[in-house]
Design a protein that fits this description.
Layout (H helix, E strand, L loop, with lengths): L4 H32 L15 H23 E5 L13 E6 L5 E3 L4 E4 L9 E5 L7 E8 L4 E5 L2 E4 L2 E2 L1 E7 L9 E7 L2 E7 L9 E4 L4 E5 L9 H4 L2 E2 L3 E11 L11 E2 L2
Antiparallel strand pairs: 1-2, 2-16, 3-4, 5-6, 5-16, 6-14, 7-8, 7-13, 8-9, 10-11, 11-12, 14-15, 16-17
Helix pairs in contact: 1-2
């Protein structure tokens, strides 16, 4: 079990729900009976008044429950902390992640209970970092189970074929300098990615993706620590598919990033 925000949110739902339920079953009927017996409500003693903790529980329980269900089964927000996915995602982007794209999972336990789909090559996916599952990472799906992935001379090969790419020009966006931008195609999915022409490539090699695992890479290829370093991502570590930037904040709001669809 991972002790993250979802876990503590679940604890909050559980505590407030239990307090509300116990009060409703045991204490509330007694208070009601006391009032009906003729107690002056203006001069109620403490045994008749609703405890403050119950008032808070009744107020917070439905809010926490709705947030927990939305985050657990529908959509969850994340903030991009690094430039490993430039130029697709900027540092400071706030994104939304579809939690049911790859199956409906039990919150906290992250156990899949209903199949709804599988990751496809080119998807931008949020997952729990294999070496420390308490951390959430975001990368692009490059290799599916059974794929042969190779990376040499800054060229990506999928099952023996080099990925199609087209030079766009020098990257002019924030977060990175002296980088060349390319448009890469993965099974028909087009996305932008960056290479650093003057930087030696130290992450070369070949990999066969095991069953129920996925090979992930950042779009900022020379500035991304990914499956080339720490290996493929197990299926049980999947969190969801990133689909939209809903806000950006770094030194200020970048209004043109709001509502950007993630490709």
């Amino acid at each position: 079990m991972i002790f993250d925000f979802s876990f503590y949110l679940f604890v909050g739902v559980l505590i407030t729900g239990v307090i509300w339920a116990i009060d409703k079953v045991y204490a509330a009927p007694r208070r009601s009976a006391t009032l009906q017996a003729g107690t002056d409500e203006i001069n109620m003693d403490d045994s008749v008044k609703e405890p403050v903790i119950v008032e808070y529980a009744k107020s917070f329980f439905p809010v926490l429950l709705i947030v927990f269900l939305l985050r657990g089964f529908v959509v969850e927000p994340f903030k991009i902390p690094s430039g490993s996915m430039l130029p697709s995602l900027y540092i400071g982007d706030f994104i939304l992640v579809n939690k049911f794209a790859y199956g409906i999972r039990v919150p906290v336990l992250n156990k899949k209970i209903i199949e709804t789909g599988e990751p496809e090559r080119g998807d931008v996916m949020v997952f729990r970092y294999p070496r420390d599952p308490s951390l959430d990472y975001i990368k692009r799906v490059i290799g599916l189970p059974g794929d042969h992935i190779a990376y040499y001379n800054k060229v990506l090969y999928v099952n023996g074929k080099p990925a199609e790419r087209e030079f766009v020009g020098e990257y002019e966006g924030p977060g990175q300098s002296h980088a060349s931008e390319y448009l890469e195609k993965l099974d028909g999915v087009e996305h932008s990615m960056l290479l650093m022409p003057g930087r030696p490539n130290s992450l070369e090699g070949e990999y066969v993706v095991p069953e129920k695992m996925y090979f992930m890479m950042g779009d900022n290829r020379d500035n991304s620590t990914d499956s080339r370093v720490w290996g493929p991502v197990p299926e049980e570590n999947i969190v969801g598919e990133a689909f939209m930037v809903w806000m950006h904040w770094s030194d200020g709001v970048l209004w043109n990033r709001l509502g950007t669809i993630i490709n």
